[in-house]
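Shape is hard to put into words, and the shape of a protein is harder than most. The fold becomes a row of whole numbers, each drawn from a learned catalogue of backbone shapes. The outcome of that step, for a single protein, is printed below.
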Amino acid sequence: AQYTLCCTDTGGVVDDLIVYRDAWDVLRLVPNAANSAEVVQRLTDAAPAGVTVTDRHRDVAVLAVQGPSSAAVVRSLGLPESMPYMAFAHARWQGADVTVCRTGYTGEHGYELLVPADVAVTVWDAVLEVGEEVGIAPCGLAARDTLRTEMGYPLHGQDLSPEITPVQARLRWAVGWDKPAFVGRPALLDERAQGPSRVLRGLLAQDRSIPRPGMTVRTAEGAVLGSVTSGTFSPSLRVGVALALLDVSVSDGDTVRVDVRGRPGAFVVTKPPFVQTSPG
């Protein structure tokens, strides 16, 4: 499995997604649900002769089983769990084809189960049943959002977008720079060579301020440095944390001010993750 980016001609990000290589000539892409139609259309338009793009977003559901006890839960379901990070395995579960992916967007040990949509509720119920003894709980996107922000993982639509490039989002490692051609390559090479005007950095509150997307970040003297792209209250640290697109003059360790509902909150520029993950 490979984390990758679908870019525009100008280097912006249409979506970030994971590609699973089922066979040498079969690839399964899992984009963000809200962007699936756009990704499918772009792939279809760009597909060379002999390549078929099939949209399966109505046929497959994804259930994320995340946390230090996730391996025990997956094992209790009778599914394979001993693969390394960013690997996956196919299995059968009560007559249904299930793909068990050692992936996730929480920073913890975890799995994503790709299951046929018509058995998703049955699998969901089974996950909660076998996980009861380890204290499993159903969680929604709000919980996922605090977890990924604590890890400093960017979210498309906030920290990544058609206007925010991988170079600005500090995702150069996810770009195949040595590939001879890909959408957005000339623009990204140019930005990498010249250097971006802004960079995504982490912010850790020094007071009770809770940052939110769109809030302005300033110097102590009031000069604008950028804006918050993701911000929340960290349940683990009990303080506010954020990701912000800031001027390249800003460095880790600097103290900045965030306009929090008319009051300047003090934040230290911090390299994520804000919270260390559990062993395993």
In short: The longest strand covers residues 13-23.
